[in-house]
Amino acid sequence: MLECQSVTRRFASFTAVDSVSFRVEPGEIVGLLGHNGAGKTTIMRMITGALEPSSGQVTLDGLDMQRHSLELHARIGYLPEQLPLYPEMTIVEYLDYCAGLRGIDNRRERKEAVQRVVYDTQLEDKLTSPIQTLSRGYKQRVGVAQALLNNPKLLVLDEPTNGLDPEQTRHMRDLIRRLGQSATVILSTHIMQEVNAVCDRVLMLQQGRLTLDEPIAELADRAVLHVQCGDPK
Ligand code: ATP
């Protein structure tokens, strides 16, 4: 369904992503694992169509991301690493505003979409709270909620547990597993434990190159991964 074919992205003379190829099948939860600067965000931005590959191709459902970006945009939900939230808006106001940006013009449809994503992300108890009063965990859930507004078949989550405490992390991982029952998910992380806990498959990225593409169930010796990734957790 999602395919990256020899995708390369250069910034001036620096190659951030170097000839990366992989497929993500419908219904999978795939973890893009790598250190800071490995190229995870750059790949995710190319997957969502926000950034054009220097060479190679990203396709979704067989359609080229750059040539069909408007059509494909509607099938993708994206949680960027730094989501601009409007601190003085309440959760409901913010999600209603985001729904408008997604082209849900009809007021009743917007209300239904907001109700659906609030329910999916368990935000009911904070609906009228201004965003600036929320914990980091709630803010991330608002970020996931906005990504769900157009009912995407592909969810792209850039470091969804970054900065969360253990309880918030547990909650976010449960949420992603639940969402993975009805959508295909690709998430980035630098924590192998997260991939183990949530994902069906791991893609390991090192200095812009894909060094591993393996179903979690088939990883014979996960300790090898800790060594390769240098992850102490
Ligand atoms: P992190 O975990 O820190 O978010 P990452 O794996 O997501 O890291 P990227 O943000 O994709 O890594 O960055 C990969 C490399 O590309 C880094 O060296 C970064 O400095 C560089 N890079 C990313 N975007 C740009 C840009 N717009 N211009 C120049 N260099 C960039």
UniProtKB/TrEMBL annotation:
Keywords of the record: ATP-binding, Nucleotide-binding, Transport
Keyword Acyltransferase among UniProt keywords: no
GO molecular function, one term: ATP hydrolysis activity
Origin: domain of life: Bacteria
Keyword ATP-binding applies: yes
Residue stretches making up the ABC transporter domain: 2-232
Similarity field: Belongs to the ABC transporter superfamily.
Designated name of the protein: ABC transporter domain-containing protein
UniProt lineage: Bacteria, Pseudomonadati, Pseudomonadota, Gammaproteobacteria, Oceanospirillales
Full-sequence range covered: 1 to 233 of 319
